[in-house]
Write a structure and sequence with these properties.
By secondary structure, the protein is α/β, with parallel strands linked by helices. The longest helix is centred in the first third of the chain and has 83 residues. The radius of gyration is 28 Å and the shape is globular. It starts with 5 loop residues before the first strand and ends in an 8-residue tail after the last strand.
């Protein structure tokens, strides 16, 4: 675990530790100071010359005017050298970014090739692997029962391994290659056909398959209508404006059954309100939708939003239940079309925040994602800060990523080691750890990160805001109105 943040700008156009960006900013300030002092020295020298005061007798060529001229020359040289050093630092970040994109592309290509071959292998070898697989399973079950093997610890070690996380990120768009291989297509053909299919398209295909299974009575991934109600225990209260990224991370609702999942804050005058909305994480992992809208069904619908295969979605709704619940909560709180919105989300809430950014009918001025799988969303040039942990599997589920100009990703190693990190299955995904990372963002000197603190403070202003909390639930298991 460390406090060093790695900052990626524009979906990977520049990648570096925040210290590098901070040094580049400091060199830029030094260059400006050198040029400012050069202008001052030159102005003083001109004043001396224009006043008719000659250099002191006996001073030779090093009188006041000549000394100031020499100082101006030295300051100009220092400014030039500082400018070139700063450019070299920025260029190194860009080279690092290009190298990172190349490595990511190679991981992606390898994952797709492996998926296609695995699908083809499974087509022919699966019947011969059933009996050995059952035998291995029986041995592992006995080992777990006797205490000789801890399956949860082993799963935690694998799922929190940074290399495994990276493989999953690359494989985010490879499900189609696996299925094509399973149909018997050669790997080269499977990769060619699946080249344009990423995580959103795979999610849409999954929803299409779920819709087909619905003809046989399956309710998997079938979404339904939602309703929201204000938390009477909180009511309407006044809150101070957030001071930065760490402050808004602390305000995101922690996932807890039966508790409010959405928090809305209004700032500004009644005639021109601005809205901060916070969305919590997934609370139910079942593929069959229940009363809780922040569940796996809603997550898959949200990831599938705006994919090129939306027409395959026949599973009860055109958007995730969580997304619809957040919009209802904003409307109930008083938000009107066109009002500026800044969404903040953790895990599944991050997917909702990214989806709101991508919706051009909303006036979203920026967003913050805490550990949500948002990489595949086209965020355009809207400023979006995405916090990710190297050992966290959940953000990797978004796939290799989309080069959105406004996206700034800050990542770090959040765990001491993959082993012994606690009882949680995904310890790096805990909200408490993302709140720690958000605090580091506030203390970072990287200008790209500091800009988000400025954005938040400019958005809310200095006056207190009005807070309401909202509890969302599905009102039935029937299909949502389109």
């Amino acid at each position: 675990m460390g406090d060093d943040l790695t900052v990626s700008v524009g979906g990977g156009s520049r990648v570096a530790l925040d210290e590098l960006f901070a040094e580049a900013a400091a060199l830029g300030a030094l260059e400006g100071a050198c040029r400012d002092w050069r202008e001052r020295a030159a102005a003083i020298r001109r004043g001396i010359v224009q006043s008719g005061v000659s250099d002191a007798p006996g001073a030779g060529s090093w009188g006041p005017a000549s000394g100031l001229s020499h100082a101006s020359s030295l300051l100009e040289t220092a400014a030039w050298q500082t400018q070139h050093l700063r450019a070299a630092l920025v260029s190194s970040a860009e080279e690092y970014g290009r190298a990172e994109r190349t490595v990511t592309a190679m991981w992606d290509l390898g994952a797709r090739y492996l998926a296609a071959n695995t699908g083809l292998l499974a087509l022919f070898a699966l019947p011969f692997l059933v009996v050995p697989g059952m035998a291995i399973g029986a041995v592992l079950a006995r080992a777990a029962a006797s205490g000789a093997w801890n399956p949860k610890a082993s799963a935690r070690a694998v799922l929190s391994d940074p290399d495994f996380v990276r493989l999953v990120r690359s494989a985010g768009g490879a499900a189609d290659e696996f299925l094509l291989g399973l149909r018997g297509l050669p790997p080269s053909i499977a990769m060619l056909l699946g080249a344009g299919v990423a995580a959103p398209e795979n999610a849409s295909l999954l929803l299409g398959a779920a819709g087909g299974l619905g003809l046989f009575g399956s309710r998997a991934f079938v979404d339904g209508p939602v309703a929201v109600r204000r938390d009477a225990a909180v009511g309407v209260s006044r809150v101070p404006p957030p001071a930065g990224v760490g402050d808004i991370a602390r305000r995101v609702p922690a996932p807890a059954p039966g508790a409010a999942q959405i928090r809305v804050e209004r700032y500004g005058p009644a005639a021109a309100p601005r809205w901060l909305v916070y969305v919590g994480g997934t609370l139910a992992a079942s593929p069959v939708a229940g009363a809780e809208p922040l569940d796996l069904t809603s997550d898959v619908h949200a990831i599938a939003d705006d994919s090129g295969l939306d027409r395959f979605r026949v599973s009860g709704a055109e958007s995730g239940a969580a997304d619809r619940a957040v919009r209802q909560a904003l409307a109930e709180a008083g938000a009107r079309p066109g009002d500026p919105i800044l969404p903040v989300g953790y895990s599944a809430g991050g997917i909702v925040a990214a989806g709101m950014v991508a919706d051009h009918e909303l006036n979203v001025v920026g967003a913050v994602n805490l550990g949500g799988p948002v990489a595949s969303t086209d965020l355009g040039d809207v400023p979006v800060l995405s916090l990710e942990h190297e050992e966290d599997l959940i953000p990797a589920l978004g796939g290799p990523g989309h080069p959105s100009p406004g996206l700034v990703t800050a990542s770090r190693a959040a765990l001491p080691t993959a082993e012994g990190a606690g009882a949680e299955l995904l310890p790096a995904h805990e909200l408490a750890r993302y709140r720690e990372t958000a605090e580091l963002v506030d203390h970072s000197k990287a200008p790209e990160l500091a800009a988000f603190g400025d954005l938040i403070r400019d958005f809310t202003g200095t006056a207190s805001g009005e807070r309401t909390d909202w509890r969302a639930s599905r009102v039935s298991s029937g299909p949502a109105a389109r």
